[in-house]
Amino acid sequence: MTENAHATVTPSGIEIDLSQVPAPVAAAIDTLDAERAPQIAVDLGLTLDEYETVKATLGGREASLTELYVYSLMWSEHCSYKHSKRQLRRFPSEGPDVMQGPGENAGVIRVGDGWAVAFKMESHNHPSAIEPFQGAATGVGGIVRDIFTMGARPIASLDSLRFGMLDKARQRYLFEGSVEGIGSYGNCLGIPTVGGEVYFDEAYEGNCLINAMCVGVMREEDLTRAVGSGPGNPVVLLGSTTGRDGIGGASTLASQEFDEAAENKRPAVQVGDPFTEKLLIEVCLELLQRGGFVALGDLGAAGLTSSASEMASRGGVGIDLDVRKVPAREDGMRPFEVMVSESQERMLGVVTPENLDDVMATCERWGVRCAVIGSITDTGRFVVHDGDLPAGQDIVADMPAALLADAAPVYDPAFRRPAYLDEVAEYNPYHLLLESTVVDLSAVLLTMLASPNVCSRRWIWEQYDHQVQSGTVVLPGADAAVVRVGLPGRGAVTNRGIALASDCNGRYCYLDPYVGAQIALAEASRNVSCVGARPAAITDCLNFGNPEKPEVFYMFKEAVRGLSDACKVMGVPVVSGNVSLYNESFSQPIHPTPVVGMVGIIDSLDEVCTASFKQAGDTIILVGETHDELGGSEYLKHVHDVTAGTIPRLDLGLEMDVQSTVRDAVRMHLLSSAHDCSDGGLAVALAESCISGHLGCEVALDDGLEPVASLFSETQSRILVSLSDDKVEEFEKLVGKHAVPWSVLGTVGGERIGIEGKVDVGLGEAAHIFDVTLEDLVNQVD
Amino acid sequence: MKRYEIFVTGKEGIFDPAGEQSKRALANLGYQGIDELTIGKLIRLDVEDDVTEETVREMCRKLLANPVIEDFSITLLEEA
Amino acid sequence: MKRYEIFVTGKEGIFDPAGEQSKRALANLGYQGIDELTIGKLIRLDVEDDVTEETVREMCRKLLANPVIEDFSITLLEEA
Amino acid sequence: MAATSAATATAVAPSVSVTTRRPRFGVVSFPGSNCEQDAVNALRFIGYSAEFVWHRSTSLDGFDAIVLPGGFSYGDYLRCGAIARFSPVMEAVIAFADAGGPVIGFCNGFQVLTEAHLLPGCLIRNENLHFICKSVVLRVEDSTCEWVDLAPGTVTSLPVAHNEGNYTCDEATLARLRANHQVVLRYCEPDGSTALGGSAPNGATDDIAGICNEAGNVFGLMPHPERVTDGVNGQTQGAAFFTAIARRIERGVAR
Ligand SMILES: Nc1ncnc2c1ncn2[C@@H]1O[C@H](COP(=O)(O)OP(=O)(O)O)[C@@H](O)[C@H]1O
Ligand SMILES: [Mg+2]
Fold first, then answer.
1. Residue B14 is nearest to which of A130, A245, A367, comparing CB atoms?
2. What are the catalytic residues of D?
3. Where along chain D do its domains lie?
4. Every domain of chain C and the residues it spans
5. What ipTM does the predicted assembly reach?
6. Which of A43, A488, A579, D27 has the fewest CB atoms nearer than 10 Å to its CB?
7. Which of left, alpha, beta for A451 (phi over 0: left; psi -120 to 50: alpha)?
8. How sure is the predictor about D8, in pLDDT bands with cuts at 50, 70 and 90?
9. What is the DSSP letter of B11?
């Protein structure tokens, strides 16, 4: 394959111009023999073609053991995005407010007055399925490092969770453990966990999803990138010791299907140390603030390997490391173990020789370990030394940094439309509509409020410190959380805010990946619009099954296409994200779950609205209108155990008009409340506004639909608002201007949730069921 | 009635931040010569005579220890 | 090098929420005949040979146990 | 507030301070503290001066009152507050308190105060083993505490956020706390009553949410007054937990 030095090799679909590869620095290197090398490569997850490419980047020679580990991790799906990369290019990532799009540790947008926020979402699905507490905790740790690496102070987290049904003890264990892990880590760091979402569905039984999002704030000029530069500059490793825990952890786990074999990967469990992370936040932000680092990057998946090679590659430089200078947690670690360890709470920094003393002293002051482990070079090579070996024979890896980081193979996997899509689309819930005239709809509403996917999430968020930093303006339980923008530690508190929400209905995506993904964006935007925020940008976490299966890849492709089309229409860029594939157990893929994490901007915290009814006598208005759209609904699933049908249509134009109507109304102080209609439809939205406001309602729904559709249809682009009588006229003018459909439903007040001719339930009873369901489900005894 | 004592400790290679920080704290208090400090659990279980060690082992595997990251050992004490 | 094992247990009369919850959880799992379950700490301390039991006792009094709510006992194991 | 006891009114402070000046609060920052910034901001918002005190500092000169903030000092490993209690600054805090200087600790600060034996008892794991973050209803008791600006019997609310807020002590200590009027705050129902079986979300003995020492100058509470002081979510009731001591300092009574 490598006939001459200038050949272009493309065994895995990539092109390498070998004349551009920087020359090796090692005189000799202990390579594997030609027989064993490919075998080990395959054991480590590379294909034979990929190994040929590895050899090509190494000038045709076999790899050393350390090199093979390094390559196999860097070129794993988790680190290289080799199956998803081409699809992700569809996402719009530019916009006037975007300071940093995908490609860095986190995306960054401007939020006004010189303020910027960095944010990103990441999955920790596979580790959490093995050990939920530590898996979820270290997931939070990882995403938080991505944020402060950028120079931003983390001010809020969200968590997006999926489990199987809670009647299974294992699912309760996973759910309880994950929530506890997320809480324990975030609470200790003093970063408020202000929101998130959780769904329960059999589809996630073998493979739970734990996605964590973190948001940080900074002044625009504080933006730091992980770009290594300055040959001769020392490279320092901050934070925890390096152990064998997590060797081949996240990256190996996340790049393979999850089944019983995973049991053997137990030693890969990493234990989080939030205390050390908290100190790292303080040390790094303090040093960044006075220009202490040339570059800073966190150690995530593939540990030192990934952060060092990416730093070198971004800066077009080389890097020299000595594994024996890395503070080890255990004796006798082999070079490759040090290089690929995923021990948590570590940061890699490049400093100038002049700044080194300050960096060391600052670390010492905070009690943070700091070691010089190497330096930046001008060789373009990523060179790993083993200081225990005699000089001259101490090089255990010598790799072209840029190719290692960026020349991973890229695939266009085959795709095929799954046959089931047509089957499920044919399902027509008409017979259930007819039934709705004979059932007790009040009882159905109570049943819906007791759905694990509808009921209050209080049991979760009360375990999260959602108020630390004293900047949480709208607490969990609303459509979106609102957090004040500022850096109080630097004497800056503003009246600006950001609104945060995460959304994805996996059932919709299973039934229709294109529209389902669009709805995820629409709902997230709607949620931030309800509190009065302007949707600004998103991060995403794309959770799918094995991309090497054509059906799965079709779903992935369609979801990405749907999400990116919707982003383009709505003018919302994707500034960061994460892909988690191979979410399967025993060959059963999860529902496609492209989670959207939304950041909205609030120019004045005086103009914020929440979902609860505020005042008896207020008029209740529905912005948008209801159609007969029960396909894929929570009603079908929870009451009839059916996952089928045509999911609600989405008209993005109408969606944007509805949202801007409500945003304008919030800004004009017209509204007492605004709440989006999502899972469970209008009846559930009404009940939620009643319950959180401790006020009943008396409404009539004259939409001409069958009662069940009228109550539980999940038609998109609907927002339920309430307002005092003296504001109704002005509001009418506003909706008229935006030309969106709307209707007056009734009034707030009383002790009952009354929907004329359909529902009449006591507020107390509804509130009780809504409130205790989740806790009861968790505490149930088999 | 009898008493079982159950020791639950972190598996080999599993990081123990609590032990690590406690060790540091002792060093800061001026204590020298400490090589390693790990923190595990000591569970005392007083049970009826007919509860066998096998049953206790099962309790450990199911609930009292986390087999993914912890080892456990069981000792029967004579009298509760 | 030698190893001390330190047992830190709740004082008589001090409520032990973790023990209480575990007991309840075991009952929920169907285990019968459990009279009492308490959860304490097992601290393993590997030290140089010249660290005396008296010093370890002092470490416990000062830091490793809280005399307001906890008792402790120390055992010397032969080899670390 | 309870009538100030003669003992505290005449307490001699370690260093002389000028009367009628803005009280200066020192807010201790331990590794792992995470509410120190919130405390400084809240105090400054009310109009007081507040500065950080590094945990390695050995002097509290110039401060009129000391705040031990919330958070997870040293990760709260081993026991919460146990390692922080041996920070160099704690010797100075103990001396400051012993000399009658006003010290308040909330959440982790309360835990540190008990570990340092400046307050009796101990805070153990919440009864339900879960971290609890929510707004709780509290009743102000008739205590000798110098810190609280609310009449006994007042029902107020403050946020709590803790894993180990379950106050516990032996019978004798509890009897002493009651007899000496050291219970400052109790968890209660919205109408001020105490529910059968207790109103504490965390299982605390006798619904205790906050206590002071016998002299009244050291105050520990699990809730977070600093989080509801500057009105960020429409609440300002936390200020009442700082203003009384500040007025005393201004009058030159304490320190
Ligand atoms: N896992 C979670 N962690 C924290 N907050 C959550 C979580 N799940 C849901 N919440 C909060 O509960 C509220 C309701 O969530 P959800 O039903 O998903 O809202 P919506 O349907 O409006 O998107 C929101 O405030 C949300 O942030
Ligand atoms: Mg939602």
1. A245
2. 107, 224, 226
3. 2-251
4. 2-79
5. 0.93
6. A43
7. beta
8. very low
9. P
